[in-house]
TrEMBL record:
Organism ancestry: Eukaryota, Metazoa, Ecdysozoa, Arthropoda, Crustacea
Entry superkingdom: Eukaryota
Molecular-function GO terms, alphabetical: phospholipase A2 activity
Protein name, entry field: Acidic phospholipase A2 PA4
Subcellular location field: Secreted
GO biological process assignments: arachidonate secretion; lipid catabolic process; phospholipid metabolic process
Length: 218
């Protein structure tokens, strides 16, 4: 089943927790598992191009989706998570990126950040996996998507702050570049913010000239 929105995700967790133990997992491990799930051989449920209109979603708002895919574009047209379009490998890249566990939607406020852009900002690990997935597909369409997303659109990704020593706690910032954006009920800081550099996926290096704010989730 495909859960949409934070409320539905909470319901899903409550449902699963009623009959099985839920264990925390790190974000890198989660992204790796998502990649492995996408690589598993299975009888994929495919939908032809003629059946990918918004009418098949029960009147859902129209979306701009790349022909031959259900996930590559604005929103998606997949009735279920298992659905992929004829361009299966490419669609799998977009589907995995759409389900990044840590992201902030357009004009959405999460993790102490407000995204004023028109595109969703995902964790840098998700964007990095998306980039390499597209490169592994390697065809002209995948390269076009990679160029548009990373070279033209250039959506800034989210990178959590790393503690630099045992002195870096939730109560004290490392230096004056850090500041507290949100406190919990016992006045401990839950979100630190710091100016960071963006990431050049083409050359896999940081760019000091481009800066943005990141959050650390305690």
């Amino acid at each position: 089943m495909l859960y949409r929105g934070e409320d539905e995700q909470i319901k899903a967790q409550n449902t699963l927790g009623s009959f099985m133990e839920l264990r925390p997992i790190s974000l890198p491990d989660m992204i790796h598992l998502m990649k492995l799930c996408g690589d598993l051989p299975r009888n994929q449920i495919q939908i032809e191009d003629g059946n990918t209109s918004s009418q098949s979603r029960g009147g859902r708002r129209s979306s701009f989706i790349l022909p031959g895919t259900l996930w590559c574009g604005v929103r998606d047209r997949a009735p279920r998570y298992e659905n992929l379009g004829p361009r299966k490998r490419l669609d799998n890249c977009c589907r995995t990126h759409d389900h990044c566990p840590l992201k902030v939607g357009s004009f959405e406020n999460r993790y102490g950040l407000t995204n004023f852009g028109f595109a969703t900002r995902s964790h840098c690990l998700c964007d990095n996996e998306f980039f390499h997935c597209l490169k592994n597909v390697g065809n002209e369409v995948a390269n076009m998507i990679a160029n548009f997303f990373f070279e033209i659109l250039r959506v800034e990704c989210l990178q959590p702050l790393e503690k630099k020593s045992h002195h870096d706690t939730l109560l004290y910032p490392v230096n004056n570049l850090y500041y507290c954006d949100a406190y919990d009920e016992v006045k401990k800081c839950r979100f630190w913010k710091k100016r960071k550099v963006s990431y050049d996926y083409k050359f896999e290096r940081s760019i000091d000239e481009t800066q943005y704010y990141d959050v650390f989730i305690a």
